[in-house]
Amino acid sequence: MSSYKYITLREKCELKASAAEWFHEKWGVPTEAYLECMDSYLNGETEYGWYLCLDGDTIIGGLGVIENDFHSRKDLTPNVCAVYTDKKYRNQGIAGNLLNMVAEDMRSKGISPIYLLTDHTDFYEKYGWEFLCMVQGDGESEMSRMYIHR
């Protein structure tokens, strides 16, 4: 059994800066964009949160919830975004635990369904996500897969 700890950013708000930088390093989205979303969550302006997996004090996995994950279907909201597990920690169920955590947390707040944009196939289905449709990502030439969790 792992000793990993799964938290929301509200549980450990002092990780905000390092979490924003961690997500920036994984996805290339400006750190400021993550900080803005995280501040809205931490200030109670939104329930769209940020979820982390820690190994000790080190962030090893995470994801967030935002209004729209840079795609043309503005009606499909909110979106789980920035799902990532560090390479050396993969295949241990971390992403699945984070996905289950966000689904339960959003549902407990009356936020359902939630959506997720990805190019992966046969991963999210393991965690209760259903393929919904193909959507156009902003600035993308290829369509991407949109999933829904009810």
Task: Describe the 3D structure.
- With 150 residues, the chain is α+β, with helices and mostly antiparallel strands.
- It contains 3 helices and 7 strands.
- The protein has a 7-stranded mixed sheet with strand order 1-2-3-4-5-7-6, sandwiched between helices.
- Strand 4, helix 3 (94-108) and strand 5 form a beta-alpha-beta unit.
- Helix 1 (16-27) crosses helix 2.
Give a brief outline of the structure.
It is built from 3 helices and 7 strands; from the N terminus they run βααβββαβββ. It is of the alpha+beta class and 150 residues long.
N→C terminal distance: 29 Å
**What is the helix/strand order?**
EHHEEEHEEE
| Average residue-wise pLDDT | 96
Tell me the helix content.
Answer: 25-40%
- In total, the number of strands is 7
Order of strands, main sheet, comes to: 1-2-3-4-5-7-6
By secondary-structure content and strand pairing, the structural class works out as alpha+beta
Radius of gyration, in angstroms, nearest whole number: 15 Å
